[in-house]
Amino acid sequence: MVPVAHANDGGGSIRIPASCCGLVGLKPTRARVSTAPQYGDLMGGLVAEHVVTRSVRDSAAILDAVAGPVPGDPYWAPPLRGPSFAAAVDAEPASLRVALLTSSPTGSPVHPDCVQAAEQAAALCESLGHRVEEATLKVDGDAFVAHFINMWAGANAWTLLDWEHRVGRTATEDDVEPLSWSLIQIGRSLDAGQYLRSVQELQKLSRGVAEYFEGIDVLLTPTLAEPPAPLGTFDSPPGDPLAGLLRAAAYVPFTPPFNVTGQPGISLPLAWNEAGLPIGVQFVGRFGDEETLLALAGQLERSAPWAGRRPPVSA
């Protein structure tokens, strides 16, 4: 309906819909796109602003238009090495070290369609001269989920407080969905020490991931652990408001770690399953290195174009 759609990503919300809809979804490096003037950062730096598009070119062009710091930002992303993000798309990348990860970092099951999509993308990378190896990224899944939910719950409590201040009244349970209210209550129950410990533990994970990326250029994963899910999959039944969140956590194990680390990640529509549903493949780069991701994404798009794939119109 539109050539470019605004999106933001605090746990995968650029890359997830891109995967489900056969689109390109780039989550830029933390602070690449400023959240000025209203905010310094969002959710402790988990959230990145950008767009979803049909082509790598369009995503890069929009990033050229909106990237860059604003005076007063709490921190800035590293500067570009080349002339522009758009120029990176047309550049042929050197032979890259690509690590393939198809098992969930949190231990949840991964659908064969998603594994196959990532493996096919790895084979395509090899055919283009890149060196592919099995990834050995290690994450304590239970600890990661617990600390991530603490940050997410704290952010929900902050969001409500922010809007209460804007509208000038105290919110009630009837103002929000049951899952949101439960997360708000968890956030309110955390003391400052507990919240900052979760921040500390996730920052520790970020250092470990950054060290791993010293030995590779790009990490390749399925974007999601399952094909696009039917509407209602993540609804919570009455009396169990957190059920939808836990179901979603199993669905999206590959995207949230890179909100924590702040690294750029892009979902590309490189595969479709036998039911005709799109299966996205995620590529993650080093912190501040969208250019390598965009060069590889442009090369893959030229080699396995998806421009002609459109869903049927239902109206």
Summarize the structure in words.
- This protein is of the alpha+beta class and 315 residues long.
- The chain has a single domain (4-303), classed as Amidase signature (AS) enzymes (Alpha-Beta Complex), CATH 3.90.1300.10.
- It contains 10 helices and 8 strands.
- An 8-stranded mixed sheet has the order 1-3-2-7-8-6-4-5, sandwiched between helices.
- The longest helix is centred in the middle third of the chain and has 27 residues, at 141-167.
- The radius of gyration is 19 Å and the shape is globular.
- It starts with a strand and ends in a 12-residue tail after the last helix.
- The relative contact order is 0.20.
Residues in helices, as a percent range: 40-55%
CATH superfamily: Amidase signature (AS) domain
- Please count the helical segments: 10
State the name of the first-level CATH class. Alpha Beta
Q: Give the CATH architecture.
A: Alpha-Beta Complex
Q: Residue ranges: pLDDT <50 for 5 or more in a row?
A: none
